[in-house]
Amino acid sequence: MKPFILASASPRRHDLLAQIGLTPEQIIPADINEDPIEGELPRAHALRLACEKAKKVASTHTKQIILASDTVVGVGRRILPKTEAREAAEACLRLLSGRSHRVFTGVAVIDSEGGLRSRVSETRLKMKRLSEPEIIEYLESGEWNGKAGGYGIQGLAGAYIHHISGSYTGVVGLPVYETRALLIAACT
């Protein structure tokens, strides 16, 4: 595998790459506006953000391979936020409680010639109906901070997911199957 730049400061993405034996040469977070465009659906939003992040880093690091990703939680056509406030996390948990939802993770790779390849991983999940003590316990944990949809499946919330169909690593933040395939294609 050729050296590549990870356009993300997410420790979860770095750990998932390490899990499959890949280490980025550099980590350069892409600071972009992540607000949805009016009428944008969750799948399209995840893909657009991943591509924008890759392009932003590629604009200052030409002739290098760039990997970027973005994860979006969707309930129907609705995009749930990356929660920064406890109130937003609580609203997400109450909305997801007892319901099915989807997690879309867009992955984009720009090769050393500037070519862009991208994919979206879609995972369907169902969260159990949460009791009031479970909601309070999760909010008190602080694990929701900065997480799409207000939860991280790799922590306490993993005990609340009673069904998953798709990529577990995609829900964590980087679908390793798709990522590896895109990086291999960019290296050939």
According to CATH, the fold-level topology is Maf protein
Indicate how many domains the architecture comprises: 1
- Going by helix content, strand content and strand pairing, the class is alpha/beta
Query: pLDDT below 50 for ≥5 consecutive residues: which ranges?
Result: none
Oligomer: single chain
Name its key features.
188 residues; 7 strands; 34% helix; Maf protein; alpha/beta
Describe this structure in words.
This protein starts with a strand and ends with a helix. With 188 residues, the chain is an alpha/beta fold. It has one domain: Maf protein. The mean pLDDT is 96. The chain has 6 helices and 7 strands, in the order E-H-E-H-E-E-H-E-E-H-E-H-H. It has helices at 11-19, 42-58, 86-96, 132-141, 168-172, 176-187, and strands spanning 4-6, 26-27, 65-75, 78-80, 100-110, 116-127, 161-165. The chain is elongated. Strands 1, 2, 3, 4, 5, 6 and 7 form a 7-stranded mixed beta sheet that branches.
Task: Please sum up the structure shown.
This protein has 188 residues and is an alpha/beta fold. The chain is 34% helix and 25% strand. It has six helices and seven strands, in the order βαβαββαββαβαα.
What's the arrangement of secondary structure elements?
Blueprint: E1 4-6, H1 11-19, E2 26-27, H2 42-58, E3 65-75, E4 78-80, H3 86-96, E5 100-110, E6 116-127, H4 132-141, E7 161-165, H5 168-172, H6 176-187
